[in-house]
Specification:
3-stranded antiparallel beta sheet; Ubiquitin-like (UB roll); alpha+beta; 1 helix; elongated
């Protein structure tokens, strides 16, 4: 596969995924991805994206519950 940004070579590897929300920051390490050997851009597969989105939804719900309890 070719990188969309720099046309470099993509190779399987692992990277971190980070997201910042209003109430929390989430970092997931060692996520499988294709990584550009030239510029370092990462591409996640469909399965990884689905799992990350599911995890974010769960954390969103738990974070909301936690803040409701604190009030």
């Amino acid at each position: 596969m070719e990188c969309h940004y720099c046309k470099g070579d993509m190779k399987p590897g692992e990277t971190s995924y980070a997201i910042s929300r209003k109430d929390y920051h989430l970092v997931i390490d060692n996520v499988p991805a294709l990584i550009c050997q030239q510029c370092g851009e990462s591409y996640f597969g469909e399965n990884e994206v689905d799992l990350i989105q599911s995890l974010i939804k769960d954390v969103d719900a738990k974070s909301e519950q936690l803040h409701q309890v604190a009030i």
